[in-house]
Automatic annotation (TrEMBL):
Its EC number is 4.1.1.33. Keywords: ATP-binding, Lipid biosynthesis, Lipid metabolism, Lyase, Nucleotide-binding, Steroid biosynthesis, Steroid metabolism, Sterol biosynthesis, Sterol metabolism. It comes from Torulaspora delbrueckii. One of its GO terms (molecular function) is ATP binding. InterPro entries: GHMP_kinase_C_sf (IPR036554), Mev_decarb (IPR005935), Mev_diP_decarb (IPR029765), MVD-like_N (IPR053859), Mvd1_C (IPR041431), Ribosomal_Su5_D2-typ_SF (IPR020568), Ribsml_uS5_D2-typ_fold_subgr (IPR014721). Residues 195-348 form the Mvd1 C-terminal domain. Pfam families: MDD_C, MVD-like_N. The keyword Lyase applies. This is Diphosphomevalonate decarboxylase. PANTHER family: DIPHOSPHOMEVALONATE DECARBOXYLASE. GO terms for biological process: ergosterol biosynthetic process; isopentenyl diphosphate biosynthetic process, mevalonate pathway. The keyword Zinc does not apply. It catalyses: (R)-5-diphosphomevalonate + ATP = isopentenyl diphosphate + ADP + phosphate + CO2.
Amino acid sequence: MTLYFASTTAPVNIATLKYWGKRDKDLNLPTNSSISVTLAQDDLRTLTSVCTGPELTDDKLVLNGKEESLASERTQNCLKDLRQLRKELENSDAKLPKFSEWKLTIVSENNFPTAAGLASSAAGFAALVVAIAKLYQLPQSLSEISKIARKGSGSACRSLFGGYVAWEMGNETDGSDSKAVEVAPMAHWPDMKAAILVVSASKKDTPSTSGMQLTVKTSDLFKERVRDVVPRRFEEMKKSIREKNWPLFAELTMKDSNSFHATCLDTFPPIFYMNDTSKKIIKLCHQINAFYNETVVAYTFDAGPNAVLYYLKENEHKLFAFIYRTFNKVSGWETKFSSDELAQFIKH
Ligand code: PMV
């Protein structure tokens, strides 16, 4: 049997300027531009391998060792677009094997719990689309390919790049200008680090697609957010990243998380993604910054109660001294830090 292979990894990205609201549900076109920071590849990532060959009889997906359906419209849209681009390539060069007509086997694996309330669909769709684009040897740029990943899951388009990434909302109705672009590579600001506090590992109760549609329909606060607040922050945040202006980046990140959750509360009926522990973490972060009289930490929360904390490497001890005191009875700490490091945190 002749088979052709390709493999890739895609990282989880966490939005620091949130995407919330679609202007076109089928194409996943957003009502505002957004920005994310991609977590390091060896932290949270999806590894996807794909193969194709003339003898394969069905498209097949194996996710974390279990066969899953590929029937969803979003997945089918991605496969259709990728096959179309491959077909164009084959039409221009008759010697190329007819990958566009053959079935695919896709094997995907997350190195983190899929249902832990972390953004697994973004990394998943990004890895799927990039692996197939690699297999098909598509000449398009990552930004072009990001438009296909966007159709799978909006935020997936940002996981095609490492580091600091913007998703430009675009204006066109066909989505041809709604794509991810790099703001800066990870190496530009290597001192910035992220810690994830998993508050709850259960699945979110309002899926993002239905949640955002309800917000678009019912929230007055949302209208102001997309008209003025986010467009302004989009430019400010890109500038703060380029200039490595940590206090500004941190403030915008926290404010935008709060603004997003405020529009969720302003949705009717309201949507609550954060719980009491999430609120305790927000309070703690502000206490830490006030205690040191500097911005040590910035928090952000997606459509769930788990916190992502950003901080500069030089401030790690200042942050974890507090976090450790507050949450030291919670499991996970012992394995993440060495006893020397823990001793340092306690000393502070
Ligand atoms: O791409 P989706 O449909 O999973 O929506 C993501 C929404 C947020 O995570 C809350 C914000 C974002 O920009 O990632």
